[in-house]
Amino acid sequence: MKMAWLRKRRGPLLELDQLQRLERLPAPAAADSRPLKEQRMVVLDLETSGLDTRRDVVLSIGAVVIEDGAISMRNQFECTLLRPDQAVSESVLIHGIAPSALASGVAPAEALLSFMEFVGDSPLLAFHAAFDQRMLARALKDSLDYKLRHPFYDVAELAPMLCPDNRPRKSGLDDWTGHFGLQILQRHHASADALITAELALILFSKARRQGLDSLLALGHRLNNWRHRQQAQMI
């Protein structure tokens, strides 16, 4: 029978093999000047019980990998349902996740640990990344006592920055995918949303290279300057 071990400093109860896997997780890699086509990136999407980053919970995770300048269809993290530790509101119906699926889902600690093993030291991309980053960080802290340090890049910011003169009137994921003629297989499903976000990211990376931005380091610098200009215009 497996024995459960308490982490130091009053943390979540984890099994010994989970603690060992947690210790083996690599530190996130810093952004560098490698060409975008040589950079492994993980594009993720979370489905959650609501939009309150302090109280709502992660219900599922979907992720795909971009490497060698393309989406790796053989390297995906399938939508993993998480068994919530609290009651979930009726808002889960928007995701099409049945209560029975949640009840039989993977325990949060195991699902999140498997996801971080999938991520490795790679940077993360998401659409409206700040929300996913906060939700994932809290889930990792609560379930694993793990501090998320991986850099996040927001495709919702990259899109208007790289397409200032050719953009849709609205700026949601549906608006940008429609703008570029992409087909969305299923919305509000973590794996499908991660895939369409990755397709959008590849289009944006192609535009970035034409603008002389061929690394995450260069994109990060440009993005910081773009944010400052956006904030200045709001004053």
Automatic annotation (TrEMBL):
The entry lists its GO molecular-function terms as: 3'-5' exonuclease activity; nucleic acid binding
Keywords of this protein's UniProt record, alphabetized? Answer: Exonuclease, Hydrolase, Nuclease
Residue stretches making up the Exonuclease domain: 40-210
Q: Does the keyword Iron-sulfur apply?
A: no
Q: Biological process GO annotation list?
A: DNA metabolic process
Q: Which Pfam families match?
A: RNase_T
Q: Which domain of life is it from?
A: Bacteria
Q: Does the keyword Hydrolase apply?
A: yes
Name one cellular component (GO) term.
cytosol
Protein name per UniProt: 3'-5' exonuclease
Q: Which organism is it from?
A: Stutzerimonas kirkiae
